[in-house]
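Rather than argue in generalities, we reproduce a single protein record, letters for residues, whole numbers for local backbone shapes, just as it appears below:
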Amino acid sequence: MTPETRLAELGIVLPHAAAPAANYVPGVVHGGLLHISGQIPFDTEGQLIRGRLGEGLTTKEGAAIAERCGVGLIAQMKAVLGDLGRVERVVKLGVFVNSTPDFTDQPKVANGASDLMVAVFGDVGRHARSAVGVAALPLGVAVEVDAIVAVRD
């Protein structure tokens, strides 16, 4: 089963890959690895998802928001590689969670993106990960996720 088939089964339609908001590129392939810049969450209507975990957003909502960041990562993979079949392995995700100082469920929030990678890519989607709480993120978003992906030629 291809990643595109899995996306369809999950009812996920990839948005257009987000354009960079500053002086960087969304993805760089070097040495067999695709480094994807941090992706911020957009809902299915294309609106930014803002907020702070521990202050108006629950862990469950945070996981859903992290999943939306994961959708953005997959859209970037498709845009850069042209074919999701070129993904050899999701190597690592870095998950940044806009959270209050007493919020400690960053790993549970990060599972939203991690679970999506496994659902779409199977065992190839299993990855190393960091999940970090931060005081603020760009544009007030709740979560940001970046990735390193091994690619086939």
